[in-house]
Task: structure prediction
Amino acid sequence: MSSPAPSTLRTGLALAGGAARGFAHIGVLKAIEELKVEVHAVAGTSMGAIIGSLWASGLDAEEILEIARRTSWLRLINFSPKGGLLSSRKLEDFLAHYLPRDFAQLERPFAAVATDVVHGRSVYLHSGDLPRAVLASAAYPGLFSAIEREGLQLIDGGVLDNLPVDAARFLGAEWILASDVTYDPDHEAAVPRGVIELGQRAVDLMQARLTQARLAMNPPDVYIRPDLKGVGIEAFGKLETIWPRGYEAAMAALKGVYG
Result:
């Protein structure tokens, strides 16, 4: 059980990647706002970077929820014969529409976690072109081409760091809240159907076990784990089912600390 948060410490929020499962972060943000938890810095990976950057820009949870409701998420993925299987142009346009151009325009310090595919390391993007940084964090390998930024070839941050607790600490946070929507192989096991599901399951398993190892070495101070059993990363049509689960999990985890 988490101990009360010291009021003198800078609080950071880490939001995991998970595609549609990341809608749960919206519910987490709603709970944080209702409990009046002061968050000084935000770090996000992939979908966590998309939602985290919107919140860091000054939008509240309800505004982000309305954006999610009116966005055709699958249409942000546009088939293209070049590079990856899919084009990132529509997603990049979406980010450019809703986000400030530069990190300096954000209301809270924010870092998007990406993976340097050449050198095999995590990269914390925290200055310069904001939409491009978030795009790099969400560039799922095999679907999107690598995003070139400042001489680096970047792909989805979840390859190496799906729950960016370290990135939140990099921003100067001393007390970390973490919202984890990573696939849980210990509670969500199901037999994959077909080659595509099998390939996705392999990625999920590698990401899940790596996240578990990182959590064991560097746990957050408050760990929020929404119940997303049976919710796939492709379940963009289940927004109204997913975000309340984040709210419920966050309220359960945070009330003992901030209630």
